[in-house]
Design a protein that fits this description.
ABC transporter transmembrane region fold; 3 domains; 4-stranded antiparallel β-sheet; Rossmann fold; alpha/beta; transmembrane; 19 helices
């Protein structure tokens, strides 16, 4: 149901990767500075509380000075209130940073997707992409924001506490901290194990997301093929794999954190034992012992927290690697610097510099193949004058769709050139080229929203009158006016609330409204009924008048009036001419037409007799 290969990533903490990730936090440096300052204040207050306790014990409790203790308690309460304000501030700043960074990274990733070529989408499941933009982004933004909190607070606490402990009693401090090297060794061991399992979890999660998407979008196909049980088995296999890796990660984490807890308790026990002896011998006061034990507990608390964050960092790095790899993916189709300077980019076009496209097209010695597969086109040549209607005919895999994909520059020739109006088409920007091509697919995709909004996608500045004119031109107004909300009718996700023919007409209107110089009908009438085909056929000639057009159709009756019919086989032109010329030659096209005509006649007889 889902086949997705992912590259392997670095098994250790990747400093270079995290430096790149932190670049995305630069726009929020003021917020990060504010968060860091607040965390230093929190750490500072946490660090002085045991000293205040020591002072109270030695100066008020031991001396039984209740008046002094009362005044001290008020000061202590004020400090606690200040600490409460600090904690509110750091939670607010961290939450704000997490939300804004998630939005920024998600926007950057989505923008990157808009600039990638069609081949990128053909090689990756939808679920893989959804997982990158949702769960991975959330994981990454969370560790950046809350990781800053824990690291700043943790390092500040540990550094301050070590200094204070050494000042109070350096011998006792060294005895207490003797467990620290062991703690570091354990941390490095477990982080490798946890990182490995979290990477597997993220990888399988992508496949599960893809399985969800395919299971829902392909529900009808699954039911007609009766493969629900197979889908369930595959999905169960994925969830079991994810559960297995998650359990392993949980086991390592469950061993790691208790190990830290035990070692910190050993440190506290050493402090109590040695400190107790020192009190008995009169080397330190009761207040100093209490403060020292408090500092010992406080010291290992940030160590435990940082150990937890470090474990989460492993999971976040797995997410970060995938997000950055997505953002840094380079499109296979890239405009040159000179073209960008003149015509702009996909996202920032310079429409004021765009020339008018007439529609003269030439394929000159074009060769093309998909990845490492055998060639689809070999030394392909074709001349099309502006306004000509070209029909492409041939078996599946003969190169029909490849020709129009190359013309749209979804792909580029491996060798040879394509010229538009006498100019090599890579000298035009992608956005300029695409804006001059109207494309109607066999299975048209409509966006969630209204009919009006979908037609306007073809030309964002279109007025309501222009939208209606486009709908009138393709005779879509007939069915639109019958809908309760007319042009404001919701089409549903992917246009599921409309029939295939209705979606086809909306797709026609959307393509026409921008008044493109070149029009492509990619098997546009092969999935609709005869009545709808007649409706569309009546408007095609009018729509395509004075426009260069390419038509791919299974029904040869739809291309009788084409100026030129190109018959393809194995990526080469084997016949060329208009319908009547090719019929007279009684070649390959003649056989196709006769077979199709016979099959349709037999089909009509069957319907009549039944």
């Amino acid at each position: 149901m889902l086949n997705n290969k992912e590259k392997s990533f670095n098994k250790n903490i990747d400093i270079k990767l995290w430096k790149e990730i932190m670049l995305y936090s630069l726009p929020y440096k003021k917020l990060i500075i504010a968060l860091s300052v607040v965390m230093l204040l929190v750490a500072g207050v946490d660090a002085i509380l045991p000293l205040l306790t020591r002072y109270a014990i030695d100066n008020y409790i031991v001396a039984e000075d209740l008046n002094g203790l009362y005044g001290f308690s008020i000061i202590y309460l004020v400090i606690i209130i200040i600490q409460g304000i600090n904690i509110f501030a750091f939670i607010y700043f961290a939450g704000k940073l997490e939300t804004e960074m998630a939005a920024s990274i998600r926007e950057k990733a989505f923008t990157s997707l808009q600039e990638l070529s069609l081949s990128f989408y053909n090689q990756r499941p939808v679920g893989w992409l959804i997982a990158r933009l949702t769960s991975d982004v959330h994981k990454l933004s969370s560790i950046i924001s809350w990781g800053i909190v824990d690291f700043v607070w943790g390092f500040a606490m540990m550094f301050t506490i070590v200094i204070i402990m050494l000042r109070l009693n350096y011998r006792l401090a060294l005895i207490t901290l003797v467990v620290l090297p062991v703690l570091l060794i354990i941390s490095f061991y477990f982080q490798k194990k946890i990182l490995h399992e979290f990477r597997l979890v993220r990888k399988i999660n992508s496949k599960i997301t893809g399985a969800f998407n395919e299971g829902i979008s392909g529900a009808k196909t699954s039911k007609t093929l009766v493969i629900e049980d197979r889908n369930c088995d595959e999905f169960t296999g994925l969830t079991n794999k994810m559960a297995k890796s998650s359990i392993k990660a949980a086991i390592y984490s469950s061993l790691f954190l208790p190990a830290v807890l035990v070692l910190s308790s050993v440190g506290t026990g050493l402090a109590l034992w040695q400190g107790g002896n020192a009190v008995i011998q009169g080397a330190i006061t009761y207040g100093t012992l209490v403060a020292f034990i408090s500092y010992t507990v406080q010291f290992f608390e940030p160590v435990r927290e940082m150990a937890r964050v470090f474990a989460e960092l492993q999971s976040a790095q797995a997410a970060a690697e995938r997000i950055i790899s997505l953002i840094n993916t380079e499109s296979e189709i890239v405009d040159s610097k000179l073209v960008i300077e003149k015509y702009g980019t996909i996202l920032k076009p310079k429409k004021e510099n765009w020339p008018e496209i007439k529609g003269n097209i030439e394929f000159r010695n074009v060769e093309f193949k998909y990845t490492d597969n055998e060639e689809v086109l070999n030394n392909f040549n074709l001349n099309v004058s502006a306004g000509q209607k070209i029909a492409l005919v041939g078996e599946t895999g003969s190169g029909k769709s490849t020709i129009v994909n190359l013309l749209c520059r979804f792909y580029e020739p491996v060798d040879g050139e394509i010229y538009i109006d006498g100019k090599e088409y890579r000298n035009f920007s992608q956005s300029l080229l695409h804006s001059n091509i109207g494309y109607v697919l066999q299975d048209p995709h409509l966006f969630s929203g209204t009919i009006k909004e979908n037609i306007r996608y073809g030309f964002e500045n279109a007025t309501d009158a222009e939208i209606k004119n486009a709908a009138d031109l393709v005779q879509a107004t007939r069915f639109i006016n019958k809908l309760p909300d007319g042009f404001d009718t919701e089409v549903g996700e992917g246009g599921d609330l409309l029939s295939t023919g209705e979606k086809q007409l909306i797709s026609f209107a959307r393509a026409i409204i921008s008044n493109p110089a070149i029009f492509i009908l990619d098997e546009a009438t092969s999935s609709i009924d005869t009545e709808m085909e007649l409706i569309i056929q009546k408007t095609i000639n009018k729509v395509l008048k004075n426009r260069t057009s390419f038509i791919i159709a299974h029904r040869l009756s739809t291309i009788k009036n084409a100026d030129k019919i190109i018959v393809l086989k194995d990526g080469k032109i084997i016949e060329s001419g208009n319908h009547y010329q090719l019929i007279d030659r009684k070649g390959y096209y003649y056989d196709l037409y006769q077979n199709q005509f016979y099959n349709r006649r037999e089909s009509r007889k069957t319907r009549i007799t039944s």
